[in-house]
């Protein structure tokens, strides 16, 4: 149906914003379409013509129509909301923004809306998840920084509530997740530093509770032993430490005997802090730094450095896609591990599903 096909009553009311809170009936009166058709059009029902869906959605936006989520939840048990739990510091340096970009791309042309739920400092990570589930505030949850035995994952599995985590756990039951192959990254990065002549490599690790900490440690250990070089894990600091603390650690470590001459970095921020420490210690030309890269920030300072890309926007898209599949009732194959692309190794695929 085109604009010209609208009943005259519908055309005469077009362009006049109704008083009061707009409802489905309001849009039906303005278009001459049935309320059920309006509802299907707002939910992108594929059986309706695209121009009908576009027109109804345009009118809804113009008059400020918002669905009554309480009524929707009572009627269908659904909220059409996806909750993303983020810590405030995850917005820094683009991580949170990149995830949101990817997730919203996955939710485009669906009935779902993304709502960000903050995880404030001094609040246990499970608390916002419990609040969402117990109050049925969303149809699914996304969160990051998965721990080896993450209580959020345990709680969501036990309550059969749809979710997907950025990172994996060691619970025996399979669960939906999206991850980066950090073990492969640390392994190949360590071998690369050894090939550059490094005799001892180091890494500033994430918090010890996080699953990918073990992956990074395992990859570095294996490669260092194969290459016959030394390795160590930075003590007293981790990726969550202030950059000044990481920088000062590197300065002090560089001045002690048997200092590392190669650093594998798990983030651009830690890489910049390490480079600053090496510079102040007078070792800029005597040590090598290799890092993951998720933004253009690092290359602004080190344009000739070797880096390995990690696509957080792509991870966000996969998180959204997998969660939609889980909400739809799927239970198999709900995981994805992105494989690092190493510029010095040819013919690598960018990603593959987890085994």
TrEMBL record:
Alphabetized GO MF terms: DNA-binding transcription factor activity; transcription cis-regulatory region binding
Q: What SUPFAM superfamilies does UniProt report for this protein, alphabetically?
A: lambda repressor-like DNA-binding domains, Periplasmic binding protein-like I
Q: What UniProt keywords apply to this chain's record, in alphabetical order?
A: DNA-binding, Transcription, Transcription regulation
**Positions of the UniProt region annotated as Disordered:** 1-23
User: Which intervals hold domain HTH lacI-type?
Assistant: 22-76
Cross-referenced Pfam families: LacI, Peripla_BP_3
Q: Which residues form a coiled coil?
A: none
Instruction: Give the signal peptide as a residue range, or say none if absent.
Output: none
Protein name as catalogued: LacI family transcriptional regulator
What organism is the protein native to?
Answer: Devosia crocina
């Amino acid at each position: 149906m085109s604009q010209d096909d609208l009943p005259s009553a519908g055309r005469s009311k077009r362009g006049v914003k109704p008083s009061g809170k707009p409802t489905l009936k309001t849009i039906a009166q303005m278009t001459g379409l049935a309320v059920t058709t309006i509802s299907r059009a707002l939910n992108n029902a594929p059986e309706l013509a695209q121009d009908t869906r576009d027109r109804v959605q345009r009118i809804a936006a113009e008059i400020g129509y918002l669905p009554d989520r309480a009524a929707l939840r009572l009627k269908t048990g659904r909220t059409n909301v996806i909750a993303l739990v983020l810590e405030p510091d995850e917005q820094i340096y683009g991580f949170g923004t990149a995830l949101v970009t990817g997730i919203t791309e996955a939710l485009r042309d669906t009935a779902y809306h993304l709502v960000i739920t903050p995880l404030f400092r001094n609040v246990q990570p499970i608390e916002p998840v419990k609040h969402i589930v117990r109050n049925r505030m969303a149809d699914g949850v996304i969160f990051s920084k998965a721990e080896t035995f993450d209580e959020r994952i345990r709680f969501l599995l036990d309550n059969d509530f749809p979710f997907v985590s950025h990172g994996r756990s060691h619970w025996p039951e399979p669960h939906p997740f999206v991850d980066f192959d950090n073990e492969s990254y640390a392994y190949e990065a360590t071998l690369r530093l050894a090939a550059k002549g490094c005799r001892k490599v180091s890494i500033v690790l994430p918090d010890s509770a996080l699953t990918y900490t073990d992956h990074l440690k395992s990859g570095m250990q294996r490669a260092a032993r194969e290459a016959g070089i030394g390795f160590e894990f930075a003590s007293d600091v981790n990726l969550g430490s202030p950059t000044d603390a990481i920088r000062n650690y590197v300065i002090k470590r560089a001045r002690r005997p048997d200092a590392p001459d190669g650093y594998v970095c798990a983030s651009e921020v830690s890489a910049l802090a390490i480079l600053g420490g090496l510079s102040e210690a007078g070792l800029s030309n005597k040590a090598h730094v290799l890092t993951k890269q998720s933004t253009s920030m690092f290359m602004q300072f080190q344009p000739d450095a070797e880096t390995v890309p990690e696509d957080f926007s792509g991870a966000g898209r996969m998180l959204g896609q997998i969660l939609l599949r889980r909400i739809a009732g799927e239970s198999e194959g709900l995981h994805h591990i992105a494989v690092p692309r190493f510029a010095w190794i040819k013919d690598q695929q960018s990603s593959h599903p987890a085994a």
